[in-house]
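Figure S7 source data.
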Amino acid sequence: MMIDRFVTWLADSPVSVTIGAHGWITPAVQTVHILAIAVIMAAILMTNLKALGAVGAEDTILGFSRRYAPWIGGALIVLLLSGATLIVGEPRRSLENPVFILKMGLLCVALLLTAAIHAPLRRDAGFWQAGPRLAVLRGMAVVSLGVWAGIVFAGRWIAYAVT
Ligand code: HEM
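Tokens for the predicted protoporphyrin IX containing FE complex:
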């Protein structure tokens, strides 16, 4: 299969061999990954709790979005780079792992939901205040929290689903 050949090529690459030869690299990169998870989950939690009306009564949802969106974006870049390094270091462990595929699928859904909540605010600060939209926003916030929690669960499960 195509993926097998790619995984073998990647595992034999000088970068992958170097990562494997230095036992400290993977735990160091996993530490960076975990710290970025903490940042993105804190920002996602705050913006979704605001959407649910549970925090920040003194501020607007646009105010929260402006404050936390840069943290979400920055943490995502760190997660992408640290995640890619973990893949290069042990390609078989993730690229041939159905739980990793599940995690990436959930991440796509979570990013679409997050964009759907934040993007309209850039055009219209009161977009979510109008009538039934508030109920839609709150529904999306609940689903978004569930999906992000699912990504963390899948991320941890990867290690236990290695074949
Ligand atoms: C942006 C793209 C991402 C990529 C390419 C990626 C990739 C990876 C890889 C390859 C692992 C190592 C799995 C292992 O070998 O055990 C991992 C672990 C993990 N990832 Fe990600 N990840 C990404 C984003 C995220 C996000 C957004 C979250 C959660 C919000 C997340 C949560 C986790 C968790 C909880 C672990 C387990 C950490 C550990 O126990 O050491 N990842 N990720």
